[in-house]
Amino acid sequence: MKKILMALAISSAFIAVPASAELYIGAGLGAARTDTSNTASKIFVGYQTSENLGFQVAYNDFGGYRGATANAWSAAMVGTMPIDPNWDVSAKVGASENRTTAAGAGRHSDIMWGVGGGYNFNRNVALRLEYENFGKLPTDAQGNRWKASNWGLNLKYAF
């Protein structure tokens, strides 16, 4: 019975996809904050199911962390509210798996959230300014557990 319900739910999602649905990809640079401030980079892919709702998967590299590196994989639901044809604001909430290569550290899953605004140059290309909070990084060998956040400027391309 569970398999039948799951199959119905998945198939109904494809049937109910509106004409405005679109796949998008993007990349960006930013300023990450872990134990120090670092230059960060991001790549992402998403699916906008309607004008106001989408889903996104991203990889963020936070740069240096305690003499090593820190990064995160995240999956989030993204809500978008158009202000006019060119401007919009957005909010996201999801989960992240935060990783470090510092001695004694590993992985830590946490809730991630973010807010942002964007300018749409046309139907396909947009520039977004976002703040994202990824929760805590794994505990390092000295027992420290820093939080990770990022201010980023991202370029998005929709198909």
Describe this structure in words.
The chain has 1 helix and 8 strands, in the order αββββββββ. It has one helix at 2-15; strands spanning 22-33, 37-48, 53-65, 68-82, 87-100, 107-120, 125-136, 147-158. It has a single domain (20-158), classed as Porin. β3 and β4 (68-82) form a beta hairpin. The longest helix is centred in the first third of the chain and has 14 residues, at 2-15. By secondary structure, the protein is mostly beta strands. The model has no long low-confidence stretch (mean pLDDT 88). An 8-stranded antiparallel barrel has the order 1-2-3-4-5-6-7-8. The termini are far apart.
Topology:
Blueprint: H1 2-15, E1 22-33, E2 37-48, E3 53-65, E4 68-82, E5 87-100, E6 107-120, E7 125-136, E8 147-158
Antiparallel strand pairs: 1-2, 1-8, 2-3, 3-4, 4-5, 5-6, 6-7, 7-8
CATH top level is Mainly Beta
* Percentage of β-strand residues: over 45%
Which architecture does the CATH hierarchy give at level 2?
A: Beta Barrel
- Can you tell me the number of structural domains? 1
Q: Distance between termini?
A: 37 Å
Shape: elongated
Major pleated sheet: 8 strands, antiparallel, barrel
Determine the fraction of residues in helical runs and give it as a percent range. Answer: under 10%
Mean model confidence by pLDDT: 88
Spatial strand sequence of the major β-sheet: 1-2-3-4-5-6-7-8
Listing every helix as H and every strand as E from the N terminus to the C terminus, the arrangement reads HEEEEEEEE
* Beta strand count: 8
- Alpha carbon gyration radius: 17 Å
Here the CATH topology equals Porin
Structural class by helix and strand composition: mainly beta
